[in-house]
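Exercise 3.2. Students should predict the tertiary structure of the chain below and write it as structure tokens, then compare their answer with the key that follows.

Predict this chain's 3D structure.
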Amino acid sequence: MSNFGLQTTFEESVSAVTATNSVAIGTERWENGRKYIYAYNKSTSTAGVGYGVVYSAASGYSVTVSSIAGENLAGVVINADIGPTEYGWIVVKGHVPVQSSGNSAIAQGNKLILDTVGAFTRTTGATGYTGIVAGVATGSTATAGTFAAFINVG
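Answer key:
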């Protein structure tokens, strides 16, 4: 028997950002071809739309905005900024718009790593940035700005 045409009804939008958790931290959810994780922004900085966050050393699904290039990406904020000490949904797998750090042009097919302050840059081989590949560019940009990417960290 198949379940074609059935949809799950959620109590909260993936755009929701709250001061108290509305679901358990670490809850996973698929919507519109993207896998989301519910997380807590433990940092003192706002996690902006299109920027990546990293896991905080403090606890499992607490995230922070990092100033260190090459860190392991936890996910990308895509629907609404998540302020300090707020809860929200981050994308860990799927097609998303992301921010370029502006360090180099991004071309379709470039492998992406997390750069400083949550922006993304391309890997440049042995002489360039080091870090864990977080995704691949599906769009391009010549300078700092938004471009399309496929992220796969979860």
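Discussion points: The chain has a mean pLDDT of 86. Strands lie at 28-31, 34-41, 52-55, 62-64, 75-76, 87-99, 111-114, 120-122, 135-137, 146-152.
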